[in-house]
């Protein structure tokens, strides 16, 4: 990530908004914005701990929050992620489920793309064939411009047995707290 380019761009935006960069409220804004983007889109994962385990019990991450930017307007998007997989001889460390969601958040990206990338990474690391992700997004671009709605956008992606009703139904029950 090129912080200097981000800072230069933010200065231009502020100038375009006719904001004085000498105003104490805005003097450090370009640096602060660059820092936010570095924090939001940085990767800290050095390795993915996986373990051999002969379980077929569902593993589910519920309610993980992710913040990103809409690629079309660069406005904030808050996502709540529900991720599940059925192990196939290998499991991933539980904290790594949340970390892999963060890992794919490498820059402004479509909600649908985030879901696909998370499932790709999960299945690659664990060898799982059966996986599901549901993302509920609150999109700043929908809230402050155009339609101005507080409606959420829900995307889902299923692989393997999750494409069939019994396991998909169980996934919905578990992410909704009815199990």
Please, could you describe this protein's structure?
- The chain has two domains: 3-41, no CATH class; 50-175, GTP Cyclohydrolase I, domain 2 (2-Layer Sandwich).
- The chain has six helices and six strands.
- The protein has helices spanning 3-16, 29-41, 94-104, 111-126, 140-144, 165-175, and strands at 50-52, 59-69, 76-86, 90-92, 130-139, 153-159.
- The strands form two sheets. It has a four-stranded antiparallel beta sheet, sandwiched between helices. Strands 1-4 form a two-stranded antiparallel ribbon.
- A hairpin with a 6-residue loop joins strand 2 (59-69) and strand 3 (76-86).
- It starts with a helix and ends with a helix.
Helix content estimate: 25-40%
Name of the CATH superfamily of the largest domain: GTP cyclohydrolase I, C-terminal domain/NADPH-dependent 7-cyano-7-deazaguanine reductase, N-terminal domain
Give the averaged pLDDT, no decimals: 93
- Give me the secondary-structure category: alpha+beta
Overall number of structural domains: 2
Strand proportion: 25-35%
CATH class of the largest domain: Alpha Beta
Radius of gyration from the CA trace?
19 Å
CATH topology of the largest domain: GTP Cyclohydrolase I, domain 2
Total E-strand runs = 6
Order of helices and strands: HHEEEEHHEHEH
Report strand order across the widest sheet.
2-3-5-6
Task: List the total number of helices.
Answer: 6
